[in-house]
Amino acid sequence: MEVQQDSTGDKADLEPSGTATETDRHGFILGKGINSGDEPSPALVRHREMKWLSIISQWDDVSQRRSSKVKGQCQKGIPASLRAKCWPLLCGAMERMRLNQALYQTLDESPALQNWVEVIEKDTDRQFPFHEMFLSKDGHGQRELFGVLKAYTQFRPDEGYCQAQGPVAAVLLMNMPTEEAFWCLVQISELYLPGYYSPLLEGVLFDAAMLPWVLKRACPAAHRHLQRQGVEPLMFATDWLMCLYTRHLPFNTLLRVWDLFFCYGVRVLFQVAVVLVRRALGRGDQREECDGQMETLERLRGVKEHLLPEHADAFIQEVCSVSISEKDLQRRTERELENWRKERPDSTFDPRVRCHGYLMAWERVKETEEKKERRAKEKGNLTLAPLRSLSSLSSLSPSLLRKWKKRGSKVVEEDCEGGAGELRHLRGGGGGG
């Protein structure tokens, strides 16, 4: 299943030529049809920065006992200056990075898995071609993007690379350093959206099957129209979900949506889907204009043209007003899972393991740490570096491996983060998701 590309336009005229290129506050080239929207007043930005700095300084207490405060600030929007800190903090990437010190550097310095190199290199040039970070093939943005995606294929050789991870990683890199971006990508892929980027794409297929239930509840008229025209969610929402709306929202609105996503998890993706369907097909005259399957699909795929960047606050308010509780989502997941298993009796995919927001993500990271500590105590003198993951062992230098052997350490799957995937053979062949 191939996702849409960012742009097919020629950006040769934007390659570095010795003159400075004027950009907006997000780094996009001015005059390329990208409007960054209105900016909050400096006083409001500073006020929100102080709120978040207070939350960060008391994170262990505030995140657990005053979660409503964290959620309220996420709805108002995380200041741009603090997303590099807040996104990794919310999703547990910061803690996971601390527990896996130097792992990203090990992966980054290791030779790339050749079956993925060509695929990743081809995609890095396609991501946000009008952003200053990604203008040049030899620029730091494309190099960093390649490094993060390459590292993920080494960290999860059982999954490899999925094309939809490219724009997700690119947005992360626009907001934070490479190591933090890598661990955020890991948390998204493993905890928030497990199965979305696996070879069978089971996670996104499952959520596409959930979407009619969401639409029927929140916008029944549009849902009936989709049914009459034979339009299934897989026809229009796959790219929305897999790419986390990176190609379908004005950029300032996208960042606000991601603030919510890291806080609440997958239900935000459903809520945004509802709002986009409403914007495209919510009115009677809109549905009358789309009197066929193709017309309906064109309207849905082109919905970004009808979203104004300066209306980000209104968009976020509408997203938050879509009533989907965590309990509702879990109950529906159980019912949908019954149908899933009847249709796919051999599937081992289980959407119930995913984290519905930052609290569950942190619980999962802490559970992993506690399990490792217990295993270390049970095994006595454990001399392996903490949380060495997946294919990183195969990339260690021979001298370091000899040192481990001299110490008499035993490398077993349960000792290292990643479980049964630790010593798996690399999957052969290239190709994205």
Describe what you observe in this structure.
- It contains 22 helices and no strands.
- Helix content is 57%, strand content 0%.
- Helix 16 packs across helix 19 (312-321).
- It is globular and about 65 Å long.
- The model is unreliable at 6-10, 12-18 and 382-433 (pLDDT under 50).
- The chain has 433 residues and is mostly helical.
- The chain has a domain at 202-324: Cyclin A, domain 1, CATH 1.10.472.
Please tag this protein with its features:
single chain, Cyclin A, domain 1, 57% helix, disordered C terminus, Neurofilament heavy polypeptide-like
Structure summary:
Helices cover 57% and strands 0% of the residues. It has 433 residues and is an all-alpha fold.
Mass-distribution shape = globular
Total helical elements: 22
CATH class of the domain at 202-324: Mainly Alpha
Helix content: 55-70%
Largest sheet, strands/sense/barrel: none
Strand segment tally:
0
Uncertain stretches:
6-10, 12-18, 382-433
**Mean pLDDT over the full residue set:** 84
Structural class: mainly alpha
**Strand residue content:** under 5%
Q: In terms of topology, how is this protein built?
A:
Layout lengths: L41 H16 L1 H7 L1 H10 L6 H9 L1 H7 L3 H7 L4 H11 L15 H16 L9 H11 L2 H15 L9 H17 L1 H9 L4 H4 L1 H5 L8 H14 L2 H15 L2 H6 L3 H9 L10 H10 L4 H18 L14 H22 L18 H10 L26
Helix pairs in contact: 2-3, 3-15, 4-10, 5-10, 7-8, 8-9, 8-10, 9-10, 11-12, 11-16, 11-20, 15-16, 15-19, 16-19
Protein name: Neurofilament heavy polypeptide-like
Organism: Clupea harengus (Atlantic herring)
